[in-house]
Amino acid sequence: MPKVGLIYNDIKPVATGAAQMLRDRLESLGHEVCMATGAAGILGYSQPGKPVCHTPVDSLVPPGFDEDMEFAVVFGGDGTVLSAFRQVAPKGIPLLAVNTGHMGFITEIYLSQLDKAIDQLLANQYQVEERSMIIVKLYSHDMVMWEALCMNEMVIQRQPLTSMCHFEVQVGNHSPVDIAADGIIISTPTGSTAYSLSAGGPVIAPGVPVLQLIPICPHSLASRGLVFPNCEPITIDSVNPDSLVMVVDGNAGCYVEPTDRVYVERSPYNARFVRLKPPEFFRVLREKLGWGLPHIAKPTSVELP
């Protein structure tokens, strides 16, 4: 019996209703359907003064989601899609992202296109696009205290009432460098259109095998963004008397104490997107972010009244 997975944002009635309707349709066609909420992939935030909960990245896979699953469908916005990939990437399950949120930058279709999309999936008329991910780990005295699977970016930054921070950053086996800034972003190519873009980083096409480091409001003109091969890990030490905050993909995070160390490396798991037509990254940039729209020239002369 073919197996299909459904992941949905359970706080949105539209997403919940759509998932239930698709479940009924697939079961009527003889498919085994496994359902899960996107909340299971949201790791949450640790609290100051409490032990950090270490949740291994491969322990978030929902029951029934395994290598025998042909594909899964996620209903929600970009945040739910990020959470869903944290759940299914360890099993290599291709994921069709259906937008029931707002921008939906990394979703594939809108809800109105679902019926036709499912017909294509069942007829095996689709492609799979792989996107790289990273694993972020927090070490305290050589012990892993917190970790997360990340598709967009990792951000380590100062708390609101603290001053500018100093970071000692080492990429691969290269010499460490000191960065004075409000924070640091480590981004994948997929995340290059998210927070790092707002912080002045470049847009990187999804297939380029790199990561990028973007300082947030750096104190020196010498502290610019850096693009480097994704085969090189990154180690970040906080050279500050105060604790910092680390956030992964905007929906999980922990506190980083002065003696802690953050380690980032490319994940062995890729995010596998279901594509119903050949991927067109520049078209998405144009439609979602307005990149490359035709320039409308100003008139050469203006007649005054």
UniProtKB/TrEMBL annotation:
Q: Which cofactor does it need?
A: a divalent metal cation
Q: What is its main location?
A: cytoplasm
Q: Which SUPFAM superfamilies match?
A: NAD kinase/diacylglycerol kinase-like
InterPro entries (UniProt xref): ATP-NAD_kinase_N, ATP-NAD_kinase_PpnK-typ_C, NAD/diacylglycerol_kinase_sf, NADK
Q: Which residues form the active site?
A: D78
The record's annotation in NCBIfam families points to: PRK02649.1
Q: Which family does it belong to?
A: Belongs to the NAD kinase family.
The protein's name is: NAD kinase
